[in-house]
Structures are given as structure tokens and as C-alpha cells.
């Protein structure tokens, strides 16, 4: 089980529960409450833009060794409700996967290694495919995330896709401090917030287009090497440090780096992403008395799916949650 619970996200050079730390930390530090917060989920403000799930490009990052485990679970659950909007970015050919989702299975030809370079290689392909798609929103998730498409669309509709929007949840309580390599052995300290890829994040098309000089083609990997940090940190660097756009924090995104037991059953329909994994050496899953036992549904994703979509053919009928 442990191999299956390991996240496809990487944070280096130094690691602490999987979060990014820079090579030369400084004393400069901001509080997490300094981040702009998304509007509260309750109260339902009128939408700023009328969008549908068809306006969203959902990129799932995975690796071939997880196709039969993690990815199959996603295909059976939330991807089955968002198949036309979801693209799977992997590192190997898989004819069975192609039969299921066709051209939405993207072999990036990136290395299968769990390295900074391999992860940045996949993100570079995700970015280019999104730009090519013409869709209004780019949302990245990992292969241990459940995506609630209805909650996602509802949240994104609070913003204009032409605005500069970067939405997600930091895994740190302060900005990351990094060293930017300027050439000629010159270096400059930088600090910025980033949304952890393990919880998922979204970028508006208006902002994504501005990222192009640092993200399109081979530029993304070059940018990642400049700060020697992985893919999600590099996204934050381009948006916050280079373009000067601040991360909008949303607590509706969830990664395995947080205590998922704190998400209550009544709150599940409002959440955008959920996850599963290990937390402080214990199984870290949503606490949900649902359609399946923990033995039959260790991630709790099947039970979550039956809560959100009780008409799913394989969900037990008339389940009392």
C-alpha cells in the first residue's frame, strides 16, 4: 500500500513532509494570513462569469507504474464524470489507457524517474497542451486527487478567466525562499508563495498566456533549473516572483500533506479536491462512513463518489451515509 500512497509530486532540494525548501533560507517571512483568500464558499456570490466544466482543462499527472492502481481508481470515479475535460499526462505508452480515453492519454516522453527534472518535463507538456486547447482555465492535479467537477466550476465562476488568477493552497505557512541563478555565477535570493501540486491548483487563461516566455516549449524546464525547484514551485515562481501576481488561497483544495480527517461528511460536496496518503506515519484518509468499507475502499474515493453521484451504476443502492 505504501508504494501506492506515495505522491507523484516532489519537492526538493530539502524535504520536510514533502514540501519545498530553498537551498539558502533567509529570515524574510510572511504569515499565511497575508495571502489573499478566495471568497467564502457559503453565501453563493453571483458568478463573475458563466462557465461550464467544458471551459476547464483538467490535467492529471501520473506515471506508468500507477496506471492499474491509482489511475484506474480515478477513471472509475471522478474522471468518468469529466472525461471530455480531463487529460492524463504520463511517461509511457499504454494501449489499454488509449482505448479508454483516446487522445486524452498524453505520453509526455518524460523520464519515469521521480525527479525534479522529470516532473517539470511533464508540467511543461501540460502547459503547452492547455494553451493549444483554447480553454479558459488550466487546473493541475496529481493522481492521488479526487476532483469534484461541480465544486470546481462553481468556484472558478467567481472570477473572470481573462483576469490574472492563480488559485490553490500553499503547503507552507510562509513564502518559500529560493536562489535565482542569473548567470556569470551571480545569484539573487527570491521568495514567493506557491500552491502545492498535491492539492491541485488552477490558473486563468489570461495569466497563463502571460507566463509563456518562461513556460512554453522548453522554457519551463529552463526556468525550473534556474531556481532548482520542482514543477509546482516553478509555477509559483513565474506567477508571483516574475509576473508579480499573488496566489489566491482556497481551503477547498486538499493534499495528503494535511490531516484529511478534519474534512467532515457535510463539507465534502463543497470541496474541490480531496486526497489520500500517509500523515505522521498513519493512513490519512477522509473520515466517511460510506458505501464501502475501508478495506474495500482504502482511499475513500469510491465512497465519496457515491455520496456525490448516487446514481453511479456500481454504487450500492439506498446507502445510508
UniProtKB/TrEMBL annotation:
<feature type="domain" description="Fringe-like glycosyltransferase">
    <location>
        <begin position="50"/>
        <end position="300"/>
    </location>
</feature>
<keyword id="KW-0812">Transmembrane</keyword>
<dbReference type="GO" id="GO:0046872">
    <property type="term" value="F:metal ion binding"/>
</dbReference>
<keyword id="KW-0479">Metal-binding</keyword>
<feature type="binding site">
    <location>
        <position position="143"/>
    </location>
    <ligand>
        <name>substrate</name>
    </ligand>
</feature>
<keyword id="KW-0325">Glycoprotein</keyword>
<keyword id="KW-0735">Signal-anchor</keyword>
<keyword id="KW-0328">Glycosyltransferase</keyword>
<feature type="binding site">
    <location>
        <position position="144"/>
    </location>
    <ligand>
        <name>Mn(2+)</name>
    </ligand>
</feature>
<dbReference type="GO" id="GO:0007389">
    <property type="term" value="P:pattern specification process"/>
</dbReference>
<dbReference type="Pfam" id="PF02434">
    <property type="entry name" value="Fringe"/>
</dbReference>
<keyword id="KW-1133">Transmembrane helix</keyword>
<keyword id="KW-0472">Membrane</keyword>
<feature type="active site">
    <location>
        <position position="232"/>
    </location>
</feature>
<dbReference type="GO" id="GO:0033829">
    <property type="term" value="F:O-fucosylpeptide 3-beta-N-acetylglucosaminyltransferase activity"/>
</dbReference>
<keyword id="KW-0808">Transferase</keyword>
<dbReference type="GO" id="GO:0000139">
    <property type="term" value="C:Golgi membrane"/>
</dbReference>
<feature type="binding site">
    <location>
        <position position="256"/>
    </location>
    <ligand>
        <name>Mn(2+)</name>
    </ligand>
</feature>
<feature type="binding site">
    <location>
        <position position="70"/>
    </location>
    <ligand>
        <name>substrate</name>
    </ligand>
</feature>
<comment type="similarity">
    <text>Belongs to the glycosyltransferase 31 family.</text>
</comment>
<protein>
    <recommendedName>
        <fullName>Beta-1,3-N-acetylglucosaminyltransferase</fullName>
        <ecNumber>2.4.1.222</ecNumber>
    </recommendedName>
</protein>
<keyword id="KW-0464">Manganese</keyword>
<dbReference type="InterPro" id="IPR017374">
    <property type="entry name" value="Fringe"/>
</dbReference>
<keyword id="KW-0217">Developmental protein</keyword>
<keyword id="KW-0333">Golgi apparatus</keyword>
<keyword id="KW-1015">Disulfide bond</keyword>
<dbReference type="InterPro" id="IPR003378">
    <property type="entry name" value="Fringe-like_glycosylTrfase"/>
</dbReference>
Amino acid at each position: 500500500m505504501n508504494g501506492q500512497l506515495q505522491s507523484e509530486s516532489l519537492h526538493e532540494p530539502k524535504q520536510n513532509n514533502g514540501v519545498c525548501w530553498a537551498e539558502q533560507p533567509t529570515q524574510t517571512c510572511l504569515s499565511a494570513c497575508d495571502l489573499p483568500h478566495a471568497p467564502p464558499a457559503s453565501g453563493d456570490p453571483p458568478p463573475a462569469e458563466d462557465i461550464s466544466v467544458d471551459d476547464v482543462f483538467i490535467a492529471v499527472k501520473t506515471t506508468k507504474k500507477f496506471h492499474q492502481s491509482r489511475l484506474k481508481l480515478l477513471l472509475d470515479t471522478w474522471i468518468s464524470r469529466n472525461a471530455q475535460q480531463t487529460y492524463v499526462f504520463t511517461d509511457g505508452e499504454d494501449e489499454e489507457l488509449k482505448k479508454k480515453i483516446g487522445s486524452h492519454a498524453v505520453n509526455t516522453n518524460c523520464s519515469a524517474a521521480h525527479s525534479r527534472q522529470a516532473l517539470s518535463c511533464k508540467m511543461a507538456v501540460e502547459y503547452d497542451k492547455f494553451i493549444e486547447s483554447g480553454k479558459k482555465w488550466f487546473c493541475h492535479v496529481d493522481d492521488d486527487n479526487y476532483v469534484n467537477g461541480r465544486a470546481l466550476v462553481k468556484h472558478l465562476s467567481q472570477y473572470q478567466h481573462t483576469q490574472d488568477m492563480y488559485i490553490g493552497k500553499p503547503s507552507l505557512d510562509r513564502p518559500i525562499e529560493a536562489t535565482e541563478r542569473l548567470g556569470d555565477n551571480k545569484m539573487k535570493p527570491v521568495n514567493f508563495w506557491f500552491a502545492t501540486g498535491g492539492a491541485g491548483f488552477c490558473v486563468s487563461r489570461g495569466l497563463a498566456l502571460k507566463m509563456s516566455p518562461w513556460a512554453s516549449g522548453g522554457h519551463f524546464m529552463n526556468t525550473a533549473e534556474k531556481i532548482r525547484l520542482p514543477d509546482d514551485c516553478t509555477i509559483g515562481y513565474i506567477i508571483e516572483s516574475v509576473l508579480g501576481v499573488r496566489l489566491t488561497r482556497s481551503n477547498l483544495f486538499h493534499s495528503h500533506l494535511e490531516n484529511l480527517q478534519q474534512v467532515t461528511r457535510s463539507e465534502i460536496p463543497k470541496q474541490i479536491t480531496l486526497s489520500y496518503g500517509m500523515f505522521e506515519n498513519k493512513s490519512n484518509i477522509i473520515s466517511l462512513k460510506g458505501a464501502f468499507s475501508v478495506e474495500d475502499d482504502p482511499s475513500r474515493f469510491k465512497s465519496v463518489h457515491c455520496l456525490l453521484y448516487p446514481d453511479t451504476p456500481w454504487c450500492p443502492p439506498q446507502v445510508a451515509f
